[in-house]
Amino acid sequence: TEYQLCCLDMTRDGRTLVDNEMTTVSDLWVLPGGDAAHAKQVTSNELIMDHFSWMPNGNLVYSDRDEGNVFVLRPNGGGRSQLTPKGVYKLWPSACGDGRYVIFVSCQGQQQAIWRIDSNGSDPVRVTNDSWVVFPECSPDGKSVVYRSISVGPRGELLADGLWKVPTTGERP
User: Residue 167 CA to chain centroid, in angstroms?
Assistant: First the structure.
């Protein structure tokens, strides 16, 4: 639950607080071929879903912003399963076009790195050693990842910002 400091108030005697509870949920809809007349709601009142990627088998891979895990879901809403273990926050999953891997960013403290897992969630491999990476996209053939790498100085100043490409095997970008 997230309470907003902007809206916090207290009675004059100091014994009662009032505030707004901010709750955000996601509803996922699928529109076949962009045909809004046949849109289908797949999920309802789920935790915040973040960044989707279609898998070659027609399933969706996504991360949820509240728990920070990567999930796979059939486009009809069924078969949801967690691909990554709990603990470390994970963002921006991208399914490789060959169906073999799912790529994502793992965040631990001030470190972020791109990781690769098999499409069933097994065999995690660290792909990058950068300290701040975002928005990885796996290539259609599953052999490389394009991502944005940001370098920030000790006072938060932007030192470098660029697009990089790295093999999914984790070799030099």
Answer: 20
Query: Residue 39: CA atoms inside 13 Å, Cβ hemisphere, count?
Result: 8
| CA 173 vs CA 22, 46, 80, 90, 116: distances in Å | 41, 36, 33, 21, 15
Which residues share a beta bridge with 107? 89, 112
Q: In this structure, are residues 28 and 41 in contact, taking their beta carbons and an 8 Å threshold? A: yes
Under the banding of pLDDT at 50, 70 and 90, the label for residue 5 is low
Strand, helix or coil at 14? Answer: coil
Separation between Cα atoms, residue 70 and residue 92, nearest integer Å? 9
Q: Give the residue, 159 or 70, on which the prediction is more confident.
A: 70
Tell me: pLDDT of 95 over 80: yes
pLDDT at 1: 56
pTM value is 0.77
For 22, list phi and psi in degrees, rounded to 5.
Answer: -95, 120
One-letter amino acid identity for 97?
A: G
Burial label, 63 (beta-carbon count in 10 A; 0-12, 13-18, 19+): buried
**Angstrom distance (rounded) from CA 164 to CA 173:** 6
115, two tokens = 């990781």
| Cα–Cα distance for residue pair 114/105, rounded to 1 Å | 4
